[in-house]
Amino acid sequence: LNNLENLSSKLGNLVPNEMDDVKVAYVPISDSGKIDYENIFVDGKKPFKYVHEWTANTGLQTDGKLLVINVDCTNAPSEIDIEGCKVNDKGPGAWDPIANSVIWNFYTNNNGSISTYTGHIKYSNGLGTLLAPTAHITCVAFTNGSVIANTVDHAPCEIHHIKPSGSTTVLQETVTCSNTSSDDTDDKGNLSISKY
């Protein structure tokens, strides 16, 4: 898990507009454990005029780049409850290749030191890879993308594995993952987080 934690830290330290092939979204979690929609920023700008635009209208846009959604859990309680968003006009939970261009990175920031979030994440209507290597994730509605966590529950729904693809240099980290789910056989391979 150390390499995954290193990757999460690298992602959490990304600066908006610093890389040509990566778009950075900042999504804070409030002390109530929900998304603080009023303080979402994408490449340093507010992407929404109204809160409902997260799941309605267009949602977030990749602009042909890898979209890193940095979910700041610094002020969050030990359990958070979030819903995915539209990406490139594709609805949350959409079965679409755009999912391999999106990474949700869950982290905390302690005076500039980025660490992975260690709490419990209830996640619904996902689109993209979830990266929370020290957290427990419960997927409560269909999720389209990879889920990388310390433990994962998805009894009420399906996870449609879509691998990240493409390439970007700052995010390269060699990781071997094993699927230890009771309903699948072990599946070992390399994780590469990249642009579609």
Structure description:
It is a single chain. With 196 residues, the chain is mainly beta. Helix content is 6%, strand content 34%. Mean pLDDT is 81; it is low at 174-196. It is built from one helix and 14 strands; from the N terminus they run H-E-E-E-E-E-E-E-E-E-E-E-E-E-E.
Nutshell version of this structure?
With 196 residues, this protein is mainly beta. It contains one helix and 14 strands.
Q: What's the Cα radius of gyration?
A: 15 Å
Please give the largest β-sheet. 9 strands, mixed
**How many β strands by DSSP?**
14
Mean of residue pLDDT values: 81
Q: Could you spell the SSE succession in H and E letters?
A: HEEEEEEEEEEEEEE
Shape: globular
**How many individual helices?**
1
Given as residue ranges, the uncertain stretches (5+ residues, pLDDT < 50) are 174-196
Secondary structure category: mainly beta
Helix content, binned percent: under 10%
Q: Which range does the strand content fall in?
A: 25-35%
Terminal-residue CA separation: 24 Å
Question: Topology of this protein?
Answer:
Blueprint: H1 2-12, E1 22-28, E2 41-42, E3 66-72, E4 79-83, E5 102-110, E6 113-116, E7 120-124, E8 126-127, E9 129-139, E10 143-144, E11 147-153, E12 159-160, E13 176-177, E14 189-190
Parallel strand pairs: 1-3, 3-5, 4-7, 5-9, 7-9, 8-10, 9-11, 10-12
Antiparallel strand pairs: 1-2, 5-6, 13-14
